[in-house]
Amino acid sequence: MRVPGVFDERFLVLQLQHDDRKVFEVIFKFYYSGLVLYADRIIHNTEMSEDVVQSVFMRLWEDRKNLAVHSLKSYLGAAVKNRSIDLVRNQKVRNKYRDYVQENDQEQDDDFYTFHELSQVINQAVEKLPPRCREIFLMSRFQHLRTNDIALKLNITKRTVETQISHALRILRVELKDYLYLFLILSELFSE
Known about the structure:
The chain is built from 9 helices and no strands. Helix 6 packs across helix 8 and helix 7 packs across helix 8. Mean pLDDT is 81; it is low at 1-6 and 107-113. By secondary structure, the protein is mainly α. The protein is 78% helix and 0% strand. It is flat and about 55 Å long.
């Protein structure tokens, strides 16, 4: 019979599921610096990389009761990689919008007004979505939940989630037709 060691991952996962904060601290200390370096290879910003890794560990602690992984290293690595890629992709979209605004010689006051106006238009358009469609869209786009997470949370299929998101984007395309460039940015930002 083998006695579980400190870095026996199955033992660590079991202890996490039983709310063992000391085990969580051990996992954090053991993996943190390597994960920050890994994220930094994608993001190229140490501070943002640290934020990504900390958010992954927060999610690990929040989801500890339902944790079903065989390898913490693989789980944490995949989570950091996915969040880092999402962060870079979202940053590229923000940069495109900023560049667009700068290319069109708009003053800062106009940018603020435009942002405020566009926020109102987007909120009004989202409110016109059917209730279930709106709920799924908001979970996906504003809570940043993945398709699988939404499906599990709402007890529906992944395909239903994908269909509802596509439906929401079609409706928003019509509602935001006068803001075509905004819609193009939203479509790119929201595409998976």
